[in-house]
Structures are given as C-alpha cells and as structure tokens.
Amino acid sequence: KIMQILDFSHLKKVNMSWPSHAKRSLKISLYMCVGCILSFIHAIFPFLFYRSGTDIINYIKENLLNEKTIS
Questions:
Q1: Of the ranges 8-12, 22-26, 47-51, 63-67, which one carries the lowest mean pLDDT score?
Q2: Taking a C-beta distance cutoff of 8 angstroms, is the pair 17, 69 a contact?
C-alpha cells in the first residue's frame, strides 16, 4: 500500500516541474477547501449554497484537471 502513496517519478510521468505542479495542486486544493466549507454550510442550512459544491467540483473537473501547466 505504501507504494500507492509514494511515487518519486510522478513529476516525470506528468511532465511537470516542481513549481508548476505545486501551483496547480495548491490551486485545486484551494477550490476543494472552499467547496468543503460551502458544502458544510449547506448541510446545516440547505437553502444556502445549494449549487456551489457541485459547481466547484465541475469547475475543477473541466478546467483545472485538464490544464497543461508545464514549465
């Protein structure tokens, strides 16, 4: 199982430098954190942010995961 966590050739496989990979990963993480907070609020107050979680997931899927940020 540990080998599924560690992959020292990951950057080479995705053809990205460390800075470009870090920028892209942090951007995705930020969107996910915002989505988590909005979804949490929605769970308590269902009339708030009723589309935000889905919209953020779709944005990540359609825009961020397909970005070609190679430096």
A1: 63-67
A2: no
In sequence order, which residues have a C-beta less than 8 Å from that of residue 54 and are 6 or more positions away? none
Enter the tokens of residue 54. Answer: 């889905």
With the CA atoms of 61, 66, 67 and 71 taken in that order, what torsion angle do they form, in degrees rounded to the nearest 10? 130
Mean pLDDT of all residues in 38-66: 90
Question: How much is the pTM?
Answer: 0.74
Beta-sheet strands, E only, within 1-71 = none
Question: Phi and psi dihedrals of 11, rounded to 5?
Answer: -60, -40
Cβ pair 33, 52 in contact under 8 A: no
Calculate the alpha carbon distances from 59 to 9, 13, 65 in Å.
28, 24, 9
